[in-house]
Amino acid sequence: MKLNLIALITLLVLSTTCLKAQTAAPAFTASHLKAADDFLTATGVNNQFGSVMDNMIKSSSAQIPEEHRASYLKVMNTFIAKYFTWDMLKDKIATVYAAEFTEDELIKLSAFYNTPLGKKISSKLTVLTQKGMAIGQQAVADHRPELEQMMKDAFEKDTPPATKQ
Prior knowledge:
With about 160 residues, the chain is mainly α. The chain has one domain (about 30-160). About 85% of the residues lie in helices and about 0% in strands. Helix 2 runs parallel beside helix 6 and helix 3 (about 45-60) runs antiparallel to helix 4 (about 65-85). The protein is elongated. The two termini are about 20 Å apart. The relative contact order is 0.11.
């Protein structure tokens, strides 16, 4: 449980750091941001956002002891509904895409995602991502004792000799 808590805290810290870095993004034209928003809509991210968040919460809850799982799910769902909805984050997400792609590229990407092939890949991305995550989770699970030992060894090296127990 201690390692899981450390991993969760690490993810939260990294997420906060990434968000701080994104807030310093340059200003974009309204048409560039509109192109990013159109791209996100064309890919279906706006419609899939909630289910992706639900899957992430459900997946992470597997790491929580059974006696705390229901409370964890309740807290996470409340928190996500309060601070992490598509409507709340879409402008920031559009800014991230605007920073990575030119307005013209976003227009071309939107055009592709509005084709039958673009719609097909968009409809399969969630499933493909879940399957990819499952492969990664299984790879970690297959070698978890080794990872735990590596973490324990690394943490012991970080602990000054006087405080080791």
